[in-house]
Design a protein that fits this description.
- This protein is mainly α.
- Helix content is 63%, strand content 0%.
- It has a domain at 33-84.
- The model is unreliable at 88-92 (pLDDT under 50).
- Bound molecules: zinc ion.
Amino acid sequence: MDMHNALPPSEHQATLTRLLHMLAVTEERELSCEEVFELVDYCAELQSAGIAVQDVLPAVANHLRLCADCADEYRALLRCLGMAGDETTATA
Ligand SMILES: [Zn+2]
C-alpha cells in the first residue's frame, strides 16, 4: 500500500509565495540569479498560459533580458512546455 507517496505541493507553493511577496516589497532591487531560478518555471507557466511575465513579475522579466544564464534556463523551460519555436517573437 502506498497511500502516502504524494508529496504535498504546499512546500513549493510556500517558497513561491515568499518570493512573490519579497518581489512586491523589493520591486526596485535587482534580483539574484538564485532568486530568478526559483521563479523561472513559474514564469514559463505564466507565459504558456498567455500571461506576460513583464506584467506580473517585471523584475524577473528584466533579469531574464539581462542575464544569459537565466534566459537560457527560461527558454529551456518554455521548450519543455511546448512553447519552443520562434525565438524571434519573444523579443519586441
Ligand atoms: Zn541570472
